[in-house]
Amino acid sequence: MRAVVTNGAGEPSVMTVGEVPAPVAGPGEVLIDVVAAGVNRADVLQRRGFYPPPPGASEIIGLEVSGRIAGLGEGVDGWQVGEECVALLAGGGYAEVVAVPVGQVAPVPAGMDLVSAAGVMEVAATVAPNLHRMGLKAGETFLVHGGSGGIGSFAIQYGKAIGARVFTTASAGKLDHCRELGADEAIDYRGDWVAAAKDATDGRGVDVVLDVMGAKYLGPNVDVLARGGRIVVIGLQGGRKGELDLGVLLRKAGTLTATSLRARPAAEKAEVVRDVVEEVWPMYADGRIKLAPETRFPLADVAAAHTHLDSGDNVGKVLLVVAE
């Protein structure tokens, strides 16, 4: 089968499309003929050598796909060959065929184009469980960084859907897009976004921060918290190691936690997928959450797709189209 192969770690040029053995469905797994794959920041980190797959996972990049069931492993029921689906992966998505535990496979949201569906599972399965874990509720103030990207575009709409007041940071040229998605406050990240968020809350600060930056924003995220506020770090675009004044966190009675979806056991991922289908898919169906803008690339142009994401010019979701 065709798949993206990497020659070491580094720039997008390390990725090419080659022939590799097709996977086989093991017990409890299904095979999916991939139609499209989502391109995520985690994929960029893996390409650069900073985010290796967990033990036993495919070395091929790619954490989410859409497609059609191509085969059923031993003990699998509830699916038929040819059915359309989406799947959450630990790896292997940039390929024509992928094997995945059946619990991580879900139906396509009602009325959604199959290619577009490739870009919805990873963001939903990342954002919704973490905001549940942080106890975000109606009436609270929620800040998500990177509001114009895939995670941010979803998180703004999801936060509004559950009744939160939503703040976001983004570059100046993308702030209007964030407001169109529903952000109550869209702040230029190149400015003093901590001060701006505090001004917008009469000095109180925000209740929950969803952070994709990591070390770079560690101190400012604590500074922007309201008393009893909660931070969940889900990405490390700004580095892994930072300094934190624990006294500030202590005085605010704040909570700081970090999670990784990719490393969770299959049983936990299956539970996440079930919850997403139950809660989030109806939000797509009734329009409370709309698809982010898309930029599509054919599989053969995978390097161009990553170059586009690296450039900072992207708005919304990047997708690799594997098969029409």
Q: Describe it for me?
A:
The chain has 324 residues and is of the alpha/beta class. It folds into 2 domains: 2-120 and 262-321, Alpha-Beta Complex (Quinone Oxidoreductase, Chain A, domain 1), CATH 3.90.180; 124-258, Rossmann fold. Helices cover 27% and strands 27% of the residues. It has helices at residues 41-47, 121-133, 150-161, 175-181, 193-200, 218-223, 246-251, 266-279, 281-285, 302-311; strands at 2-6, 15-19, 29-39, 64-72, 84-88, 97-101, 105-106, 141-145, 165-170, 185-188, 206-211, 225-233, 255-258, 294-298, 317-321. Strands 3, 4, 5, 6, 7, 14 and 15 form a 7-stranded mixed beta sheet that branches. Strands 10-9-8-11-12-13 form a 6-stranded parallel beta sheet, with helices on both faces. The protein has a two-stranded antiparallel sheet with strand order 1-2. Helix 4 links the parallel strand 9 (165-170) and strand 10 (185-188). Helix 2 (121-133) crosses helix 3 (150-161) and helix 2 (121-133) packs across helix 8. The longest helix is centred in the last third of the chain and has 14 residues, at 266-279. The protein is globular, with a radius of gyration of 19 Å. The mean pLDDT is 96.
